[in-house]
Structure formats: C-alpha cells, structure tokens
Amino acid sequence: MGTATSTKTKAKDKSVKPIEELPQAVVRFAGDSGDGMQLVGSQFTAASATMGNDVATFPDYPAEIRAPLGTLAGVSGFQVNFSSRDIHTPGDRVNVLVAMNPAALKVCVGELYEGGMLIVNEDEFTPANLTRAECEANPLETDELEGYRVFRVPMTSQTLEAVKETGLGPKDASRCKNFYALGLLYWLFDRPLEGTKRWVNTKFNRVPMVARANTLALEAGYAFGEKTDVFTVRHRVERASLRPGMYRNLTGNQAAAIGLVTAGRLAGKPVFYGSYPITPASEILHELASYKSHDVRVFQAEDEIAAMCSVIGAAFAGALAVTGTSGPGMALKQEAIGLGVMTELPCVIVDVQRGGPSTGLPTKTEQSDLWQVILGRNGDCPLPVIAAQSPADCFWTAIEATRIAIKYMTPVVMLSDGYLANGSEPWRIPDEAELPKIEVRHASDGSSFEPYTRDGNGARPWAIPGMADLRHRIGGLEKADITGNVCYVPENHQRMTELRAQKTANVARDIPATEVFGAESGELLVVSWGGTFGAVRTAIEQAADAEKSVGHVHLRWVNPLPPDLGAILKRFRQVLVCELNMGQLQSLLRSRYLVDAQGLHKVMGRPFRVSDILEKVDELLGGAGS
Amino acid sequence: MSDTTNPSGLNVKQYKTDQQVKWCPGCGDHAILVQLQKVLAANGADRDRTVFVSGIGCSSRFPYYMDTFGFHGIHGRAPAIATGVKCANPDLDVWVITGDGDALSIGGNHFLHVIRRNVGLKIILFNNRIYGLTKGQYSPTSEFGTRTKSSPAGSIDHPIHPISVAIGAEITFVARVVDRDVHHLQYILERAAAHKGTAFIEVYQNCQVYNNDAYGYATDRQAKHDHIVYLEPGKPLIFGTNRDKGIRLNGEEPEVVDLAKVSPDDLVIHDEKAEDPSMAFRLARMHHPEYPVPLGVFRAVEKPVYEDLLMGQIEAAQQKSGPGSLRELFSSGDAWKVD
Fold it and tell me: In chain A, where are the structural domains located?
C-alpha cells in the first residue's frame, strides 16, 4: 500500500488502530471453486459501492463446476477495484490478496504488487493441500513470499470456534470461512457489516441456523482484525465523485437483461427471448425469466438453432424478439440469422464472446467473434453490429440495438464478452425522460400494402399476422423488389443484394460524431472496441498525463463503421488497434481505409492490463511522441 | 391486432393466392392443398389470423399458395419458427407444413421438442419416403434397401416411423391419411384444426417422379381394403374388401384374424382417448405387408398447452405484483444515492 496519502486516528472509532486513507485499492479473493469466493467478492463490491466508491470487478473462475478439491485447476477468484476516483478497470494487479488455500496462493500471487498484503488461511496449508497445489515446500515457510507483507490467519479454526454455538457439523461450519474472510476485509477497509447481514438473512431465511453461522463468522472475522495484533493499520477509500443520482451495481449480463426489458417497454412490445443455455450468456436467460410481470416471454429452446428460429418467428409475429448466446452458439445460429436478413425482420442477437475456437475457453473472455458476426454467413449478408464498452453500458447498448433493429427492419448483433458479462460497475439509474424513443411503425393500409417497399431508411414495412388485410408470404428465397414474391431474375438479385447492403450502410446515419480522446491529431491513434474500453482509456489517460501525442477512439458501432472514422485515422501518423483477438478489427480497418494499422493482440482469456497498452504505446512512439 | 376482417362468407377460392402452383403434375401435394383450402373455407377460418410455416422441400412451398400469412423457413426449422410465432401471439392459428426429410432428418430435434411441449400447432408431414426437391435421394422414411442415386446398391439405413416417434415424444393428437383419400383427408384435417395442442398428421403422399406408387397398396381401388384398416373411435378394427378380417391382440402382439372364426367382440376396440399410449404405439408398429396399415386418428388426448402455460405464468406474475413498471425494474436490488 505504498500509495497512502495520510494516516490519522479517528477518535470515535472503537478501534484504536490508525486508519490510512487511500485513493484506491484492488482486492482479490481467491480460493477453491467451492469456497464461495464469487459470493464474498460480490458482497464486498456491494458494500464498497454503497459507501460511494467507484467500483469495477473481475470474476475469474474455472469452467468446471467443481474441479478436484484444492487443485490449481479449481481456483476461483474475484477481483474488485474500489476507488475514490473515476475508474474504468478492475485493476492490473492487486494490493490485497486473500488466499484461502495453497492453490489460490500459487495461482494468484503473481497478481500481487510487490509489498502488497497477502492474507492467507494458514489452516489450509496442510501437507495434503500443498501436494494438491503441486507445492514442493510450504511457501509460508520458505523465502519465496519475501516481497510481500504476509498475514497468517487461522481462518478455518477460527470459523469453527465462532459458529460452534449453532451446532452445525464441522463440514457445514467450515463452509462459513468465506464470511470470516469477508468480515476481516470489512474491518481492514472500514466497511459496515449491515448490508451483508441483511443479505445473509434474506438468502438463508429458510435455514436460520446457516444464516446465524454465516453472521457469526462474519463478525468473528471483523473482530479478529480489531482485537488481535496481526494487523496494525486499517485503510479507508473515500467516496468517489460520481454524477449525482441513484445507483445500482450491475454485471454486464444483468444490465443487458434490464436494457432489453426497457427496450420492450419503449417499443410497446412484449419481449420474446428464445435462448439455449451457454456460458457466459446464461445469466441473461435467468434474469429475463424473472421478469414475467413485464410480459417477458422466455423460451428455453432445444438448441441454438431453434432459439434463433423461434426469434425469427416471434419477430414475424410482432414481438421484440431477442436471443443470447456465445461463440459456438453464434456459429450454429448463422443460417437462421441469414433468414432474418433475407426476410428483413427486426431482432437482436446478443453474443457474449468467450475464448475460441470450438468450445475454447468457456469462462474466459475474448473478442474473437467479430469476423464471425460481421462476415460469417453465406451470401452477401450484412447486418449492423454494436459492441458494449462496460458492464453498465450493456443496458444502453441493448436499447440502441433494439432501436436500430426496428428502425431499419434488420437483425442486429450486440457484442458483449465474458469480462463485461460477469464484471460489474455502478449503474446510474436513468430517469425515464433520459431514455431514447423507440418508434414502431406498422403497415396499416392493406389496399396499397406490398411487403418489400422501402422507407427513406431502406426499411420495409412490418406487417404482422392478426392485422387486417396485410396477408403476405415471405421466406429465405430471394424476393422480388416491392412485391416480395419469389424471384430468380438475375437483375433482381443484384438489386436486392445492393438494397440490403445499402440499408445496413444507412445505419451510419444514426452514429454520432466520433469522440477523439486525448490528442486530436499527431503521432499515434489508439483504436479499440467493446470491452477493452476501460483498459485502453485508462492507459491513454496516463499517456496524456505524460504529455504524449496519443489519441484514443473507441468504437461502439463496428458495422457499419462511423462515417468520420476514415478522416480521423488519416490525422495520425500511426494507428494501433488493441483487441483481444489476433487482429480482426485491425484487418477490417486496413481493408476498408487502406491504412497501415498496427495491432496489439492478446488471447490469454484475460482482459488487457493497462500496462500492456502503455508498453505498446511507448514502443510505437519510440521517443517521438513525448 | 383488433381490426380483423369478418371471415364469414369466404369461399374456397378466397384462400388461394395468385401464385402459380409449381408442384409436378400428379403430385400428391395438390390434393392436400385443395382439401386444406376447403377445410379452412368450411370453418370460416380468419385468413388474417392464420399462419402457414414451412421448412425446405417440395411440400414447403405450400405457404405461397395459401392466402393467409405465410413463412417459408429454412430446412427442418419450421416447428421452431412456428413456436416463436405462437409465443408472440397465441391467438393465431398456426399450421406447419413439412416433409419426411425436413421433419425427421435435418429437423428431427425440433420435431421431438415441439411435440413434447404441446405447442398449439397443426403439423402436416407429407411423407413420400424420398427426397424430391434435391432430385431423388433416399430419405429417413425410405424402406431399407431402397435404390436411389445416393444408394445405388440399396439404402443401408433403417427407416424411422413418424407416428412411432410422435407417440414416443408424447404427442396429444396424431393421425395418418393417404393423399388420394380426399374425404378422409378432409375429416382428419378438420379434427386437427379443432385440437388444442400439437396435432400431427402423417400424409402418405405419392411422389410421381422419384418414388411413384410407394403407397400403391393403400391407394389401389380394389386391393387397398386388404391393406389398410380405418381407426374409428369405439369401434373394432375390421378390414378387408368384404370386411371379413380383424385385428386381435395375441398377448402383446396384434394379429390378423378371420372373422369367420373369431367374434368381433374379441377384436381390438379403438380408443383414441386412452391415457396410456401403449396401444396407439402398437398400432403405429403395424407395417405393410405384415399388417394392414392403420389410417385415422391414433391418439387424441388433452394436455395443458404450451402457450397457455407461458401466458398463464405471465398473468399470474402480473396479478401478484402488478404489471411491471420501469421504475420498479430499475430500482429492484440494492440501490444507493450519490449527492
């Protein structure tokens, strides 16, 4: 914690231990996948957010539900960055690592800053656990942790002692140790216990014994910090100056779900969500299934293909039709998405990207579906693609995807990724007046109705079954212009292909002027899209503070591209595209603008670190930019 | 959705479109089209609230010829598309037109699942036991040993039996008809139209070009009565040109008996409403030439319908907590104020 700004003792505190104020801190809870690390990480995040910190989180867990106990493969981590300043990322590295067993220590210690706090559950450093974690020696007894401040806490035995009065058996009792660790961290960072106590009582209201045990463990962890002399100082991170308003902490998947329900409301349409469970998109399905009072009709399909086809049917019949999936599911949906493009029906396809190819890295993040969603269908088959930039932004992106789908009568792909989906940040609850309008115009006059006429945007009329005198028949065969009848005339296919392309290109009219952050022109422009926004923006803020000639453009629409992008690219001598794939946007920009864009590519299942970007920026600038 | 035309007074012609029907002359599809147009006209079906959904194949051109709403989908996926239509608007009458390849090969999965959910769709499977549109390869219902372009030495695939599959997937209404038996076809279509839940009809349909006379035994004016048996509710299974043969159970096995030797009281009495589908399944296992092929309604039972359950849950949620508002949606969960 070398960044402390002041040290003072607060008189009204029961504790006599001094409190050190910090501008920000990054904590990682790490343990076995059965240890409840995601749960306590979320609780710590909620407590920090409620205290007014800006927060950003990074849950990092294995694909296996329960990998063998105590092994390296089974380590589950939850990282939270909480700050008194505006932050965009969960932090490159951590100030405090809580390691519940040797495997967690071994996997995560590399994330800890030199001199950082390492809090270990020393009870779990048994010979058996050390063997499971493939440790040759007990790291607590060698010098390998010399660079860190190590705090050994007997969490398991302390927890068992604390919950004894409940009469829980030792196995159940020891499962409360995550709350013990949470209590200790609450003490360390001066957070109140009340929110978590309320949560525990609600969550376990049918098993009061468990609720009581978790509460006792939480309090015992807090008391340990207070009473023992293991810790000599506490820390405080002051409130951030966020825009006034009501806030909630949302993951990207929660934000997407709420955004879709909102979009249905704005369009005056029931939401139909046809989906097949897939990591990391399933939470959208779960969330939407709980919004029945909003007339959300959730259909858990038999497979990805059926999910997409049900969406086409629901769109034809007039619902706001949506599906959600991840890379492998997206591949299966492509034929049906082509049908949606051909029949020109409005729908939204949420692709929460994960590591690929094939089954790949189900729980890890990547941005490697870009080519797939833009280019991955048979025929010339264009559709608009929009990418969310942060967890809370998934809310706004879902609404915009819907608005464009209906305005232009087209399937729209909304890209998210595993990092956004599971990560969370505060979401300022909008006033209803801040929400965009979603105008729906149905065909009405049967006497002049033709299904493939077009309005000024290139959109055909939406005529839905049940409306009078608008009967028509459409499908995947090529349509005659205007009438929509099956037509194989060569000139017609040329024309219809061009009309479909033009319609997608027209979406550029709805893209606002591109913001260039930092330098407006000069040596280097960094371009990013989607979930890498936070890391790239933080890096460019730091580069700008160092007076380097670097600008940053973050793309929200990746198809079509913003109309002013070509001119912006030409204002800089070098262009760097940062993305979590092997250069997919880079390649699109090179072919579209004939610009010699360079790439920073990372496919390690993890988001960029700010330092990754800064190193590349420095390499390209050479000394030229500063 | 309230401005619907009054359907009464429409004639058959008004259910036809101006599109030229492009099936081969002599194809069984023509008869099915005409009978369905007649049934809709007779029922006064509201064209504005009727939707035909199809997949890919000769039969799947069907929606273009019906003056209703129509959706020509992609191969095998019509049940999934139709499920989406029904969920978006449960008030619509939705028909699915499919073929043996479409429903049972590429679309086999959707066929199973739409049936087990009991979605309110009427599914008509045109079974000609051949791939017509791709010009004559064997299909999943082709007999073992069928010689086609893709099986010149004879197919080594064993055929799948659509009604057995449907019963296995817990179908609530299932029937079989022959395309040339137009009165029976009309009756079965009417029954299907009235059914709540998934209604499935297998039509033995002749492909004159690639598999002509596949069902000759069931259509030949003279001989057919020895090869088919009509299923009639509450009546014994009697067949034969002189109605002198019947079906009796010998233990678990159906057997053909001579009515000169066996009393009609000992025959199988057809019960389409039996809760237990075992007898319907046994009937579905009666194949030509060992048995007369059963025609008619195998099973017609009531079970909760998918879209009713779906909307029922929504209504229950709205009754419990009121129709959801954006304010309530936004502020659920722990919120905090920043000044």
Answer: 6-237, 248-434, 446-510, 517-621
